[in-house]
Amino acid sequence: MMEWSDLPDESKREVIKRLDFMSRHAMRNVSRSDMEVENTTELYAPRVRLAIKDDKCLVVVYTGIDKFLRMEISKGENGCVIHKMENSYDLKKAIIKVSTESVPTVLACSILRNLFNYESTLIGTFELEFDTCNFLNQINQLERILSVIGSKAKTGSNQFNVKRFHANWMTSLQIIDACHLSLFNCMVLEEVEREGIVWETESLTPRMTMETSKRYGEQIIRLNDIYMAERRADCRFKMVEKAMATESGYTTCRWSKIQDVFLWDHQKINSERLNKDVEMKRVVVPQIDIVTRWNKSKCGVWVHIMKIYNEKKYVNFFKNETCGLRYLCEKCSDPFDYWFYQNLPRRIHHEPEWSDVGILSQDANKDTKDIEMIENAMKLKKKFQDEEKKSKRKQKKQKKSKTLTKKDDELNSWGFEIQKKIEMDQLLKSIAQMSVHENSGEIIV
């Protein structure tokens, strides 16, 4: 059997690609040659989350469906305290580390820089979350972020390769604009979005989304509200209101159930076929200079609404659209994105302290909170709690465990072990035991 050190770099890359996220990061500390091989091997994280409060931060690295590394960072007496968890929200089961760094935001960004500041590393979505609408507070936190990450960092430029940048509903558009210009590689970034969830109790998963594209500076920012109720009674008024306020761009409403196709059927006009997958009904309201395009496919129904003079800018996009449901469609969306958004409302249950994606105010520019929205959030949390209790009773009867906590025979990732830290020689030994062989020019692992 060949030794690890005897393998050519390409063979090492094939092995490295099969390691979990933290084992790959650990490889950078084994030797200079292994670090160089790791740094030139493609690595993809579907989503990374940074949530910020005055005296604490949250970093979550999603590595797959139901797989995530979670770090809660708070101020301590002699620096910052880090609670590290894997696939769990239970602080009682966290590994606790202490850092001499005194500012949680700076430490959180340093961790992210160490994990993702590599040309071969790509992040699907980077999520930024503030807990206040206060602009000065956001500016102060942004300065701390930019001191560590981005084109103006003190340690030198280190922009991340990110496909999509999402911020929560409280984040100022000025902050979003500054982030996308400074933090991320503009040659890679494809989408900028500000989103929030309206807590409702009709459903436990997203039922409808309403979004508007708005130009800010040189960037088109998508403003997206996620609803957990059908909202068909008032969605048309809101869509028209948003479309009339949008000088360039359009407003889109998407429904998650195939049964919602009745909304398309209610438009009593002839349809035209846009392509082999989509039929469209076009409704013009000249009195208010608005055009509505109702779309139907095998996946469901969605509607675009805009000022008439904006329609021609997007007609080619509309004609080529085959499914307009985005992450609401299990069939057409990325499996991770579908899983993520189906479970996003559960933050109010699993991590209520870190659920600032939930909209609690009618005004995205103020910290005032709506009593009805707060009450809905509490009712929804209770529904999730009841659902979990019912699920646990069922699991107990079946004598099976399908919770987020790990099974006893599962191993934690490097750096997230409950017991002592895995040494580098153990890591190399485990890699060697993967039985790498050469056979007719192919690497068999």
Biggest sheet details: 16 strands, mixed
Parts with pLDDT < 50 across at least 5 consecutive residues: 419-424, 434-445
Counted beta strands: 18
The helix content, as a percent range, equals 25-40%
Number of domains: 2
Q: Report Rg.
A: 24 Å
**Average pLDDT, to the nearest integer?**
88
Oligomer: single chain
Strand content: 25-35%
Given the helix and strand composition, which structural class is it? alpha+beta
- Amino- and carboxy-terminal Cα gap: 12 Å
Number of helices: 13
Q: Shape from CA axes?
A: globular
What does this protein look like?
With 445 residues, the chain is α+β, with helices and mostly antiparallel strands. It has 2 domains: 42-189; 195-387, no CATH class. A hairpin with a 4-residue loop joins strand 13 and strand 14. The chain has 13 helices and 18 strands. Helix content is 31%, strand content 27%. The strands form 2 sheets. The protein has a 16-stranded mixed beta sheet that branches. Strands 17-18 form a two-stranded antiparallel ribbon. This is F-box domain-containing protein. Residues 4-33 form the F-box domain.
